[in-house]
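[User] Could I get a sequence and structure tokens?

[Assistant]
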Amino acid sequence: MFSLVTSPISCTLPRVALVLSWIFLHLLLCDVSNQSTSSIEDQANKPYRPIPSGRLTDETAKRLLVVLYGVCLLASYFLNLLECSVVLCLLCFGYNTLDMSRHWLAKSLFNAAAYVCFEYGGTFLAGTLSHRGAAVVMRVGMLMACFSERPYG
């Protein structure tokens, strides 16, 4: 949402809707991925979620996840944000499916990189950056994220 705060005053309502939709779509992808790989843990800690409560099966969640990967990449292709979406999809896959979230350093780096991607995409769609300017912001953001993360065991 920081991307909307830093956007120009002339940012129109349709552009705000576009930013929110792009972020929502990718956040939904991350949520479904997380919940489909941690359903046993969620049964004890968060039984109200769709998979542990039985409203959604594991198989349906995995199908939804495949569809969401495709929709996110396709939408980002048409919005000229394919690279950002590919990075977010890879981060999501590595974090949840490859269990990178179990290691403190990988968890911190993956989360920091995801924040940078979400802000990059939102800021780009809000209209404040060109691709060249956004690339600089992304590099600086990744560098700052790498040096600011602390291990939390």
Helices lie at 2-5, 13-37, 39-45, 58-78, 82-97, 104-126, 131-148.
